[in-house]
User: Fold these one by one.
Assistant:
Number 1:
Amino acid sequence: RRGIPGCPIPIPIPILYPRQTHLVSVRIRTFSLDSPKFEAKTKLELNSVCGIECQRKLPVPSLSDLKSLLSYETVFENGTRTLTEVNVLGAVPDPAANTTTQRPLRKKRQIYGTDSRFSIYDKRFMTNFPFNTAVKISTGCSGILVSPKHVLTAAHCLHNGKDYVKGSKRLRVGLMKTKSRGNGTSDGMPSFQWTRVKSTHIPKGWFKGVSGDIALDYDYAVLELKRPHKRKYMELGISPTIKMMPGSMIHFSGFDNDRSGQLVYRFCSISDESNDLFYQYCDAEPGSTGSGIYLRLKEPNKKKWKRKIIAVYSGHQWVDINGEQQDYNVAVRITPLKYAQICFWIHGNDENCTQG
């Protein structure tokens, strides 16, 4: 229904909002746009973005802000592009400010102390859940399978805030498979089965001109594959706060550039948070950006615990603090609104998107 450019179609989507006791109706309209130029350079490390101190000073988004920030662009494999406007109705924004806990500043580094990353060589782990959900993006990033046809990754892997990056016009996703030595055994190094991307969704909040600058809060994107895969994927969850985080540890796997051809896994605790971002010091290098961060969450109304994606790794980011450049490893939290948006991108309806 949304594939008719220029035809506005209102569709009500009930979603949940933090500290809110009722459902929210979202109506969307889709319009055609000019085709992108696809001339931007891929940049895996971002500068001059809003950091911890900046986040503390940000006002809570108004309904008008949410309408603009959660609107999104869709680019199709033939180069056509649409804009879908989102109108959030009846939401009650949380009046609490973007709070974080004061922490001492850290010096520049992406590996903090002893390198605590693990390269996954054993085929029994590499080709099984949860490690087999990690994918490689042809622009140089990582991602994670979130449905039989969809991949979650970082927006900056596809768009620099002004234009789509070179290579994103013919975007591909690499699903892991292990190389064979010829005698039926594996050498522990993954190879990739590449599949074309049918369409991409990026929230408008990521684009410069909407926020005035790149906004890490919206550094996420969903890719729809041209053909479905038959692998197990990981479901979405809503990000808990640090105090409510089971086990206090997050996990993610990706394809770090300094370990070419290897799947790299790591885990660590969250050091700080804002309403939309996690600040952590999981050891990571460029190439792992876009990885899905997950942990075990309790299933609603069940005793069962399940691994779910609660954030997207945005990467090693430079931010201005007290006039100086400092660095952090940052992840974009999946809030209830973002959960509803990503879930709608995946399912095309709201039936499966009312709970996280």
Number 2:
Amino acid sequence: MLPVVVVHGGAGHIPKERSDLSTSGVCSAVRSAYALLQGGGSSLDAVVEAVLLLENNPSFNAGCGSVLNMKGEVEMDALVMDGKTLSSGAVSAVRNVANPIQLARLVMDKTSHAFLTAEGASQFARSMGVPEVPQESLITEYSRMRWKKKLAPDANPVECQMGKMGTVGAVAVDTDGNVACATSTGGMLNKMEGRVGDTPCIGSGGYADNMSGAVSTTGHGEAIMKVTLARHILFHVEQGQSAEAASDLGLAHMKSRVGGLGGVVTVDPQGNWAARFSSRQMAWAAAQKDTLHYGLYTGEHFTQIIEDHRA
């Protein structure tokens, strides 16, 4: 069953003309992360690699392609967690970094802290030699167009959040049975400056513990935080529920209790996995036993054989 990696590209409604880009993006991220795992890499390296590739893909709301806040600027959040030691690293409201997930990993590896924010995170990035990038390099035409549209006085708020390519995330189990999660986002379209959602918050945007499994979430950040969705799902796993049943129970609880929609990718230490969502769509992909699994709509599940290039 091991290794396994599962990736999501965000829950919500993805316009038809962009859905193919989302699907191919999550599939290629999963392939890279799986190759790393097959080569003996750790689950931690694999989830960071998957999320890094999605941050670099302008089709997703993370890194390059992040949505803009009220002032038309990018502020990004990210979290990584190691299920073996429960070590974690997170950053929030970072602006001039191409890959917030790498910065979160550095917070975990190079400081005694778990979470750095805004200017402090930027200073830390500089001290670690992380190159600063101009805001413009993170802003796509699509993001700017949607920002302008949302600012229009006659804007329909539902329609504006429709094309919201969500948060990206990954969970994995390596051949040693260690689990890890990583999540990264540009946040919510036209959010207030300084708004931080669920993504960098341990237990909400993600959680990883070798005793139970790993989860990465996506959806309405404020709702996810209210129910600490990632940790909530792992409580169900600890009670004996399968990864899939636990994911469904967590999402159902969030919907009934606070009216929130979202999606998750979940793994347990044995390699059982799930990609579940209560929103209309969620681009997801998984790799296990040399097979690629992927889907976008509820009930959709395609498979493909992964060729082994390690000759």
Number 3:
Amino acid sequence: MFIRELPSPLFTVEYLPAFIMLVEKISKIKLQLQALHLLIMLMPEANRDTAKAFLQFLKKVVANEGKNKMNLWNVSMIVAPNLFIYKGKRANQQEMQAAATTAHIVRLLIRYQDILWTVPSFLISQVRKMNEAAMNNSKRQLMFDKGVRKLLRRKTMERERPERPESDIPEGVIRVYAPLHSKVSMAIQLNSQTKAKDILARFHCENSHGSSQNMRGHIQSLHEIGGNIGQHCLDPDAFMLDVYRANPQAEWVIKPKAS
């Protein structure tokens, strides 16, 4: 009833045609999911958060099929009109005929929802490549300037040691900063199983006895900053060794998650 009574559709008027077209124009499920993933990322944050909570509820309904007799197909057919037709707007014949299409979209949303709420990995990789290309172009442009080239040569001769103290840290070890904690930094050895949430848990454990008042009541997240990414809030289940290898020049900072 809440979804049905919204003054505008949960998936927004702007993107409703795109949701329909991704089924009608794309036949392969994998490509449909990629398009669906991108559309979810484009939605306003409030709509996306509401959709996430609603789909998690629907997943529980489907999981209890044995008790409520509501399988994935039945749930999608019932829910689809409420997501794609909204209060104050009558459904025309064409929209009614699109019921099967919208039901298919809802089935994809329920079945594959676990991968829809984070930025796709191929987009992260593309951002890294773009940033690396931009940095390389900047370096080449600087080399055309003879004065800058001489300055760089002199600076290189003056310092034989690495630019950053962190470069002395062994391979696979990162230094994580947490400015609002009582313990503001920690070197952590990564392995193939280390996740972002493991690092957050370790800081929480280390600071449990003398926790900072500033952090009390805040949900925290680990951020990858600099190198080839700018700033990236990591998913709690991200494998840190893979992220480190993709961006070894990054800094790692724990911050309160934006409300």
Number 4:
Amino acid sequence: MEISRDNESITNSEVEEIDRESTNNDIQQNENHVPRVRLPGLVRKKAYIFDGYGNYYNKEWDLAEGIGQEFCWYHIELPRSNQKLTSSAQWLIDLLCPPLKLQDILSLVSNGPFCGYVDGALVFRVNSPGPPSSNFTFRLAARVTENSVITVSLGHIPRVGFSPTSQSLLSEIPSVESPYRRGRNRTAVGPVIKEHVLEFLLTMNHSEEADNPVPKTISNLVVHILDTHVDHLQDTVTKLEMELESVELDLDKGSFALKKQMLDDRRFPKMHLNLQRLLQVIAHGEQVLPRVKEKCSLRGWFACEDINALEEYIGSLRRLKENVGFIANRVTAIQAGLDSWQAEQINKKLYYISFLSIVFLPLSIITGVFGMNVGGVPWTGQDDPALKDGFQNVILICLMMLLLVLLCFLLPWAYTSLASWRRRVAMRRSWSINRKSFLRRTIGMNHRGGYLRL
């Protein structure tokens, strides 16, 4: 196994600087096809060889296929950073060419679901087109032959590798380190784990790498890869569900600042967008896995029990899709509750403003009337006979404007009432005329002894 650096998180400036350096290099290969690793510190890679008897060994990164019952697995983990899709293709070209060709690289790195044969090898992928830095963007592609498997994933997939059984934490009897139980932790015999580690283990729906059964055939390895992908999706949904439950508990406390902060941060719209990305990845898996099952069933080296395992994974994706739909409905309901709470807060503020306007509107009318610069305003000592009609004229103009405004509001109601009255009168008149004509025809037929024509 060859792993580059342990750190996967890098800054955007470092990626842009490295991309600028990589574009300045010559992209042509020499005659010896020497591999050009432009970004040694970003991509992680693992290489295993299996003997077919339940044993595995780490090997060099030479992309060679197994001989006889032996088979090899080469796994590449692309970093979760804001890089372009072309950068990922360049990294794969540096690591896989040769022996792979450009069509093989494009089939592994492209977005969207795919399952088919490329240059004689079975290639399938479930790559979502979201931003690589998002935790809800999943990309997994595999190239399967009879003696080798090459996989490419975005970020680290839990339980995808293998490690010695002695390194498994789940096989121990640990004690939990807590700030309230520091005295008891000193007398603990087994390993001591922190509380946040226990919370992380509760979100896992699977075991650790040390508990993985070592595949004996190439079909076991393909099933293992798809199993880790489905488990990764389930872990993400479980974390999102636990986060939603904690948010619901906080909302039940009724904190004004918390609700306002959630509305300002657009917490639930972002969560709903992440759920849509998850649904897209699950939909890709529902499209690809049946085709993988169909094509693998035609291969003699693919075991029947592994075909049944693929069918179980298809059912797991369907159930996971239903669960994500339920979580999306919960998020929508919580967002609707926050929207109604925000509307109530706005209505309260408008109520206070309306109350203030009711208080100050009469006062403003009085001050406006007595503040007019016209003669004849009462109680102001303006006794000039030439100006005594000014106040009365202004009041008359105000009354006329008030009547005009009221008429504008009353005319539609009056027109509607008049139209309805005219319709009722017309209906009564037509009913009386039809009734008289009907009685006249009925009496005439009775006198003639004939039949009434309907």
